[in-house]
Design a protein that fits this description.
The protein is of the alpha+beta class. The chain folds into 3 domains: 383 residues, no CATH class; 200 residues, no CATH class; 138 residues, Jelly Rolls. The chain has 29 helices and 20 strands. β3, α21 and β4 form a beta-alpha-beta unit. α5 runs antiparallel to α6 and α23 crosses α28. The termini are far apart. The model has no long low-confidence stretch (mean pLDDT 90).
Length: 805
């Protein structure tokens, strides 16, 4: 239980936690850079230069060069790039990044220092919290070091903001404050200024990750129930509910800019899709909590974990959940306590033993219950699945709760060791005994949880960085200030799958290494800018060049890794890309083919001036010899508009705008997604194409993938139109109305057991980018009729047509 507040510990024991923070910072630096290089933190080469880590590096650059991270005019040119489609609760992290950027003006330095500072902050937070719970200073230092240097901390470097998990101990502190009977927010005896400081403190810790806020709410909820059981007071319930309300308030304050943006601009036309079943794909697995880290120092442990990861299902990012030896022992201790302790208490009662127990033992019991509750919530097939089905599927990566479980497990281990040590009948050299014991445990834990510095990784990152920096510096110096660059191949942002050898965020490297150049990559998925470039990429290269020139681009930048060297080496492309049109549509273009076509359009003289990176992967074709944007005339603009017309755009003052109409081709759901009309951004809530006797019949609604069927449109619906739907209903859905939502209007349509075409008319006074169908009675064929069809179906859609009036 709490013996002193974290405020008191922070003030009275700064001589301990300050050196602890410094040691943690430089200890992390040494583990990343090696001896003795780590004594000078790496400020030039980022610790990670690929994958999601590259996306964070790019976001850091956006924060440094802009007022804030929301908007950036240099990305997604000429539309700009806006992050507000993705609600996050990372204001605290972005504020730290902004301050580091102002100090060092370098994305690599800010990113690396943010990562290293996370160790210092976590060590301090852990120390003051476990000290407030009664752990002695020596054991508190050891607990802080072991928890700070978990393998999770290093494994999450690609997800940079998750490395600031210092909030986990603080959320646990709020829970234990309830259990200890310390009423603060609802205490009438406390001043309003004291309460306000507590509210602001809670809101501040909600600004370091929306997942951690969710897990914090789970901890506080469980502690509220435990506090009520212990104290039997409604005031504990009231205090817990108010504390939860403040956490939710902080979360809402963080996401409010996104909510206001979406309310004003509508949802993304493709949606930020998270499916309920993903809560199990990215769920917590108890085995992975206990396994050694996959790159363990000892080969026998590394091989053991590799065997599991390579042969067992549902191994995703949850492989970073390892708690290490110390955390695993604490976890197993709690399992034993939950299984055995009720019988121990019964035995004591039978022997009339005193039922009074020391506070630290009660703390262990509480930690055991919290561990069980979090495991049951996060594990595959546990509460997370029900949460995704009943509340929201937006939270899919429940394995990340492992860092909260790690805290209670590590703390429980050290409490148990200290209690056991106190019972030993040693009167001499007790302090020396504890010092040796704690030192051995800490060294074993650090050896188990960390790995040797990867000098080859840093050397590889440095080589790639130098290659990119030299190329982009030369590129920027060859062009006039604020020139715009058209990038190929097209990649959406974010969550784009890798394209051949091109990573999801590799197209951001130009933005990262230039000061003023503007880039086509970076428009958010589903918004008009992203949709324009997606459609533009389906046109022949010669047409793309004409349009890019008319938009004011100064040249074309290619990342060769996004193309094939030979289409026959790719099985998918070999089957689907026999013609050039098919290769364009299926992202199977051959790099020599693309370069040849660009050269043919711009001419040999300009093609010979192309800039090529040292590693031969990056190439830039200029549109003019003097580095200036090409001069446009009416003839060029008209030609560009002719090319743009089939994809539903036209140029106005060099900027693409969507044209009206373009709904003449119906959406045929008997075809694959690649054959959808240009106005369709995507569909959700549907199964794959149903094939009967070799004939494509359509697609069933499937409530497993989404609660209802949504057709996301890449352009606004006409203000007045008729909607024709060809479909059939299954089972009890035949003859029952299907709700059709278009903006604020809701109408009903009825289908029978056979295919039929039904028509609705809509007159709108708002801008709408989606059509929703809500079936009456979705059901599982497997449950109703038997068999292996586990979908949850209702309506079988064949075709949807939109006809403007």
């Amino acid at each position: 239980m709490i013996t002193a507040s974290v405020t008191h510990i922070s003030k009275s024991e700064w001589r301990i936690w300050l050196p602890l923070a410094i040691v943690s910072f430089f200890g992390a630096s040494l583990l990343m850079s090696g001896w003795p290089q780590g004594f000078k933190p790496e400020m030039i080469t980022p610790f990670t230069y690929a994958g999601d880590g590259f996306a964070y590096l790019w976001n850091v650059q956006r924060v440094i060069e802009g007022a804030w991270y929301f908007d950036n005019a240099r990305a997604g040119f000429p539309f700009g790039s806006n992050h507000l489609d993705y609600p996050t609760a990372d204001t605290g992290s972005y504020l730290i990044i902004k301050l580091l950027g102002l100090l060092f003006h370098n994305a690599s330095a800010a990113t690396n220092l943010y990562f290293l500072l996370g160790f210092a902050v976590c060590a301090v937070a852990t120390y003051v919290v476990v000290r407030s719970l009664g752990l002695s200073k020596l054991y508190a230092v050891a607990c802080a070091i072991i928890y700070t240097f978990t393998s999770y901390h290093f494994g999450r470097i690609g997800h940079l903001f998750f490395t600031w998990y210092f909030v986990a101990p603080l959320f646990l502190y709020l829970g234990f404050r309830l259990i200890s009977g310390r009423i603060v927010l609802t205490n009438s005896a406390l001043t309003w200024s004291n309460k306000l400081l507590n509210v602001l403190g809670i809101i501040s810790i909600t600004s370091f990750g929306i997942y951690y806020d969710l897990y914090g709410c789970i901890v506080i909820f469980l502690c509220t129930l435990i506090a009520y059981v212990i104290h039997r007071s409604r005031q504990q319930i009231m205090e817990g509910m108010v504390t939860l309300s403040v956490v939710v308030l902080g979360l809402l304050a963080n996401v409010m800019p996104s909510l206001l943006y979406i309310a004003e601009n509508g949802e993304s036309r493709e949606g930020v899709n998270r499916y309920a079943q993903e809560s199990e794909l990215y769920g917590l697995k108890i085995t992975q909590l206990l396994l050694p880290r996959g790159d363990h120092r000892l080969d026998v442990f590394a091989d053991f974990t590799s065997r599991y990861n390579n042969h067992f299902p549902l191994v995703t990012e949850n492989m970073s959940a390892s708690m290490g030896l110390v955390g695993s022992l604490g976890f197993l201790l709690f399992v034993l306590m939950l299984l055995i302790y009720p019988f121990v208490r019964y035995s004591r009662a039978q022997q009339n033993a005193s039922t009074q127990q020391e506070p630290m033992l009660l703390t262990l019991q509480v930690l055991a219950v919290l561990m069980l509750g979090m495991v049951l919530m996060g594990t595959v097939g546990g509460g997370a699945s029900l949460f995704a089905l009943l509340i929201t599927s937006s939270f899919r990566a429940w394995n990340r709760i492992s860092i909260f479980i790690a805290f209670v497990s590590v703390l429980g281990f050290f409490i148990a060791v200290e209690l056991a040590s106190a019972k030993l009948r040693i009167t001499k050299h007790k302090t020396l005994q504890n010092l040796i014991l704690v030192g051995i445990l800490t060294l074993i834990g650090l050896y188990d949880q960390t790995v040797r510095p990867c000098h080859s990784c840093q050397a590889g990152n440095a080589s790639l960085m130098k290659n990119d920096q030299v190329f982009f510096k030369k590129l920027e110096s060859s062009l006039t200030a604020k020139s715009a660059i058209y990038q190929l191949p097209y990649m959406t942002y974010s969550d784009s799958p890798a394209l051949n050898g091109l990573g999801s965020y590799d197209q951001a490297r130009g933005h990262l290494h230039t000061q003023e150049l503007r880039w086509s990559f970076g428009g958010v998925r589903g918004r008009v800018g992203d949709w324009f470039y997606r459609q533009l990429s389906t046109l022949p290269i010669e047409q793309q060049v004409v349009i890019a020139k008319s938009m004011g681009f100064s040249g074309i930048y290619l990342d060769r890794r996004g193309y094939l060297i030979d289409s026959t080496t790719n099985e998918r492309c070999a089957l689907l890309s026999k013609t050039k049109e098919e290769r364009i549509k299926n992202s199977c273009m051959i790099i020599t083919e693309v370069e040849r076509e660009i050269s043919n359009v711009i001419g040999d003289a300009l093609a010979q001036k192309a800039l090529i990176s040292q590693d031969k992967q990056l190439i830039f074709f200029p549109f003019s010899a003097d580095g200036k944007p090409p001069q446009n005339n009416t003839q060029h603009t008209n030609l560009a508009n002719d090319y743009l017309a089939p994809i539903g755009f036209k140029l106005e003052n060099g900027k693409p705008v969507q044209t009206e109409g373009g709904f003449d081709v119906p959406l045929d759901l008997r075809k694959e997604n690649t054959h959808f009309p240009a106005y369709v951004g995507g569909v959700t809530g549907l199964s794959g194409v149903t094939i009967m006797n070799g004939v494509n019949m359509g697609r069933w609604s499937d409530a497993h993938t989404a609660k209802h069927v949504t057709i996301w449109l890449a352009k606004p619906l006409p203000k007045s139109f008729t909607l024709q739907v060809q479909a059939q209903a299954a089972g009890l859905n035949a003859g029952k109305p299907v709700k059709v939502k278009v903006g604020k209007q809701i109408k009903e349509i009825i289908f029978g057991a056979d295919f039929s075409t039904q028509t609705l008319t809509f007159d709108l006074n708002e801008t709408v980018h989606k059509i929703e169908f809500v079936p009456a009675d979705p059901f599982s064929p497997a449950r109703r009729w038997g068999g292996a069809d586990t979908r949850v179906i209702a309506i079988h859609f064949a075709q949807i047509a939109i006809t403007p009036k």
